[in-house]
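Narrative summary of target 7.
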Amino acid sequence: MEKGTDMTTYTMAEALNRALRDEMESDDRVVVFGEDVGVLGGVFRVTDGLQRQFGPQRCFDTPLAESGIIGTAIGFALYNYRPVPEMQFDAFAYPAFEQIVSHMAKYHNRTRGAIRLPITVRVPYGGGIGSVELHGESPETYWVHTAGLKVVTPGTTEDAYRLLRQAIRSDDPVIFLEPKRRYWLREELELPVSDHLPMDRALVRREGSDVTLVAYGPMVKTALDAAEVGVAEGWDIEIVDLRSLNPLDEETILGSVEKTGRCIVVHEASMTLGMGAEISARITELAFYHLEAPVLRATGFDTPYPPAKLEDYWLPDVDRILDFVERASAY
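Modeled conformation, tokenized:
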């Protein structure tokens, strides 16, 4: 180990906590706030200990009013702070939709570039934890569709740390989607983490030659598991982790698809107008003559997110992904 490095295991939640702490230590303009993030340390303990270390002026609780939380973040940013507000759960962000879309995303353009809003909105999202209604949704395409927002989501513990620090340092507003089912994913993490990989670049997690799986956030691990099972079936599956949903790294996606000739996009969100639709369109437009099969989508269903007892059926799993691999391979 090099001098000055720290190699240990972290859960994703712990890595996010460490990223927040390191940014707050390095920049006193970083402030963290939201529902229960202060005294309690967040419902997932991602902000645990931050108020004790930095005080209630830099890590504090807010009323249960998401629109007010984002409005406060915009005010902080206008006064040269770097606010990191939390939306406690994915669907809790909907009351703040107007503030995010009409103000946070548009301020830089509205002022002809004179004012920037370096806000990082943390949003735990996705299913897989047996939660109740409004606690297991995948609203990413709302934010990706909104010009002026960057949207990123980590699929690994290392990326959770790296991407959150990069997001906070960005001068643009970022929707930072945290896959809550992976909060307890424990991996080795060597600190400090290198910033050689920009926040907007995808990453090939596994090399393969037969078919490309494009995944992000909570589905990265599921896609990797499917690739390992697929070996027994004779499939050599490549995994592309998007990391950034907006902007989208076309170069990495197309490079993989041009090599394999087949592509399946995997995400928890419903199929219609999901990320899979946009990625399919771009691949068809830019790599049509490299395709050996249609671009397929292994996704959630076009229904409201189901009760906890049904979510294992609703969410894409290894078997569903490999069914699509088989379909793509049959062409």
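The domain at 203-329 is CATH 3.40.50.920 (Rossmann fold).
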